[in-house]
Amino acid sequence: MSDAATTPDAPTAKSVARKGFWVGVATGAYGISYGALAVTAGLNVWQAVALSLLLFSGGSQFALIGVIGAGGSGASAIGTSALLGLRNGFYGLQVSRLLQETGWRKVVAAQLTIDESTAVSVTQPDRALARTGFWWTGLSVYVLWGAMSAVGAILGNAIGDPKTFGLDAAAPAAFCALVWPRLTTTRARVVAIAAGVIALLVAPHAASGIPVLVAALAAVVAGLLPDRTIASAEDI
Amino acid sequence: MDLWLTVLIASAISFATKFLGYVVPQSALDHPLTDRVMRYLPVALLSALIAVQALTTGSGDVTIDARAAGLGVAICCLFARAPFLVVVIAAAATAAVLRAFGVG
Q: Name one Pfam family in it (chain B) (predicted).
């Protein structure tokens, strides 16, 4: 990443902020389908929106309403949601070092630590841009995800199946685009592919949330193996 | 269990998980090896997430459908250095068109 500043399309604060905003828009579109599914699962509009503002982690929210909608107990809904949210704790370890926030800003930053804000933040070439990326992405996703969940919950099934619009394919594509700039070294690419393969191998045999956590093994192995081409962690 | 209670407990656990990542003392992670593992962690977690979102069913079985095609198109767009929005819209449009023709 160290040569990013010399490439013609090097990110600027403005381009990073713009990317964060558009990530929010793309995620907000998915929020409509979350809201619609939440009321179908039996939550009222306020509960659907409360999850978006308080729990604020898409995967966990979909899992929670999925369990409730299938007639599962509150306890199993909470358990599944908590398991899926565990990765946010790992994101926090890395993002908190880039942000170096204190006081109430630390509390707000923690709440905004999700897949999207982490992905935009950790792929920036320096700390200032990482902060810009985190806050713009986190806040725009928070506002638009919350607002669009409300829209989806109020409209309910009137909007039809989000799959018709390919919205379920938009999320993995967006994450792929966000991780892409990070794949500049062979080892990073191997980590990405290995993690994907591990997750797919584990998925049929484990509760949702577990496959992604097990895939963290790829990062552990990559970090522990010696690599002569990496002079410092900054080169990753 | 009351639905509101479920919503609030799940939310509290979610925040606690996120906040935990912020309060782990930095010194505990300062070892160079830990540092390198931490830097690969987001790539590993996000790549795994992409695989699960695009290639598995709700019950965890691996499947190839319109989402996989969307992801394939997204990767082609990325190799062609397409901007973020183009990548996302191309993937969604691919899945939508395939489904309109009854595929996936």
A: AzlD
Question: What separation in angstroms does the CA of B1 have from each of A10, A33, A51, B11, B100?
Answer: 52, 25, 16, 15, 41
| Dist CA A141 CA A154 (whole Å) | 19
The answer to whether B50 contacts A91, with C-beta atoms less than 8 Å apart, is no
Chain B interface, mutation test: which of A43, A62, A93, A102, most B Cβ atoms within 10 Å? Answer: A93
Q: Is the dihedral of CA A64, A69, A75, A76 positive or negative?
A: negative
Residue B43 is assigned to a structural domain of this protein: yes
Q: How far apart are CA A35 and CA A45, in angstroms?
A: 8
Q: What is the ipTM of this complex?
A: 0.90
pLDDT in tens, A2-51: 444 444 578 899 999 999 999 999 898 888 889 988 998 899 999 999 99
- Per the structure, the complete domain to which residue B39 belongs is given by 31-101
A37 CB near a chain B CB, below 8 Å?
no
pTM here is 0.84
